[in-house]
Automatic annotation (TrEMBL):
Residues 21-347 form the DUF222 domain. Residues 414-432 have a biased composition (Basic residues). Residues 15-42 form a coiled coil. This is Uncharacterized protein DUF222. InterPro entries: DUF222, HNH_nuc. It comes from Leucobacter komagatae. Keywords: Coiled coil. The keyword rRNA processing does not apply. The keyword Heme does not apply. It comes from the Bacteria. Residues 412-432 are annotated as: Disordered.
Length: 432
């Protein structure tokens, strides 16, 4: 291995062989997973029969099967239940997605996203006939598969939320009002003396809290010399725990979160010394002319919430898109600042395959270096996080960009991956 991270010809040849083996295994595993799902669905059908009376005997039969499956797989009944439910919905309602798994085109994780987010569509909606319901489901499935073949499961989830919302009858505001009643805070015990504190919150609040915690953590580390301070807020009041600082951002974030709730002292309830009021949390909301508003990184939110959030914003960018959802322009377009706004609206996050680091924390990279004649234009700039920036410049990955904002990544062994601008999905039409 050379110090630059470039491979020798010999290394590339060997890695290529191993990768081919890995790809072959993955394909076989996906095929087996598809077979297992089919068997699970058949087992369930066999145990429960066809009559859908929902009686006590049926419930007992289901529990018996679930326990049988859990013991057979050495898994919890919770895991067994999830498998059965995924299998049932996939086989009954999403046969094309199941076939795509069988063919190795998507993974089980992709299928799970399609099933989870599409589940509300499997419940018959009052105004719909059976045929109408099946039509909506088939359209959701068709659109999802297009994305699933190219995106990671993590990137697929917000897309699935958007598409399912577009096909759902109940208004998003109604569903949000119902979901809001389920907000709560809970503690899940974990190993080694740890526990997860989970707050189930309105999405805009959760994203704002995370952003605030990350900013405060960054400040805390900068003040203690762990990281170089950045941005206009750098250098404000000191944060707790300055003395011992070899903390990672994750550790510092957890400390800041605890301090915000419990106070920074050793005694619970002591007042926090964090400069919370001097840091503003940032969230990005997109409100299309037609269709659902969206919290970037999460997916669609109801319009009342979007408007409430928007009222607190200092400025808005108007983004114009073409029929397919490609970003054409951002209002008051000027090079530099305006170009950056355009690209932030187009990219939303790092443009490396599967990466979701928000554009705000990325660099604008010249796809073709300026010194090699690359233009400072929107067709030659794309957001890359620090890690992927390093990979692009110091390894044999080849990156190019088309006029439509599609970024092509070619690996050292010659494997090709297209990364399409995520913003195109926001303006897809719900009714074909
Ligand atoms: Zn990245």
């Amino acid at each position: 291995m050379t110090s630059s991270g470039r491979f020798t010809r010999q290394q590339i040849a060997e890695i290529d062989v191993f990768l081919s083996a890995i790809e072959r295994c993955e394909k076989q595993m996906r095929q087996l997973e598809a077979e297992q799902l089919a068997a699970l669905a058949r087992a369930m059908q066999c145990a429960l029969g066809d009559d859908d009376d929902g009686g006590e005997a049926r419930e007992l039969a289901y529990r018996s099967l679930r326990l049988e499956l859990a013991t057979a797989l050495q898994e919890s009944e919770h895991t067994a239940e999830r498998l059965l439910s995924t299998a049932y919905i996939a086989i009954e309602h999403l046969s094309a997605a199941h076939q795509a798994l069988q063919a190795g085109e998507i993974s089980l994780s992709h299928l799970r996203v399609i099933v989870d987010e599409g589940a509300p569509l499997t419940v018959r909606q009052s105004a719909d006939s059976d045929a109408e319901q099946a039509r909506k489901m088939a359209q959701y499935e068709r659109e999802m598969l297009e994305f699933a073949r190219e995106e990671t499961p993590n990137r697929l989830r917000p897309i699935a939320r958007r598409l399912a919302a577009a096909h759902s009858e109940q208004s998003m505001a109604e569903r949000h009002a119902e979901a809001l009643k389920r907000r709560c805070v809970r503690v899940i015990p974990a190993d080694e003396g740890m526990a997860d504190l989970v707050a189930h919150l309105p999405a805009e609040d959760a994203y704002a809290i995370r952003d605030l915690v990350q900013q405060l953590a960054k400040q805390a580390l900068a003040l203690s010399g762990n990281e170089v301070a950045e941005g206009p807020n750098a250098g404000v009041a000191p944060v707790t725990h300055v003395a011992r600082d070899s903390r990672t951002r994750g550790e510092a974030g957890a400390d800041v979160f605890r301090d915000l709730l419990l106070g920074s002292g050793t005694e619970v309830g002591e007042a926090a010394s964090l400069p919370a009021s001097r840091v503003r949390a940032h969230i990005q909301v997109v409100i299309p002319e037609h269709g659902a508003a969206e919290l970037v990184g999460y997916g669609p939110i109801d319009s009342a919430t979007a408007v409430r959030v928007a009222q607190g914003a200092a400025a808005w960018d108007r983004v114009t898109v073409d029929e397919a959802g490609g970003v054409i322009s951002v209002d008051r377009y000027r090079p530099s600042a305006e170009m950056a706004r355009f690209l932030a609206a187009r990219d939303l996050h790092c443009r490396a395959p599967g990466c979701r680091v928000p554009a705000k924390r990325c660099d604008l990279d010249h796809t073709v270096d300026a010194v090699r004649g690359g233009a400072t234009s929107t067709v030659n700039l794309a957001h890359l996080c620090r890690g992927h920036h390093m990979i692009k410049h110091h390894t044999d990955w080849q990156v190019s960009q088309g006029s439509d904002g599609v970024v092509t990544w070619v690996s050292p062994t010659g494997r090709r991956h297209l990364d399409r601008p995520p913003s195109r999905v926001r303006f897809r039409r719900a009714d074909e």
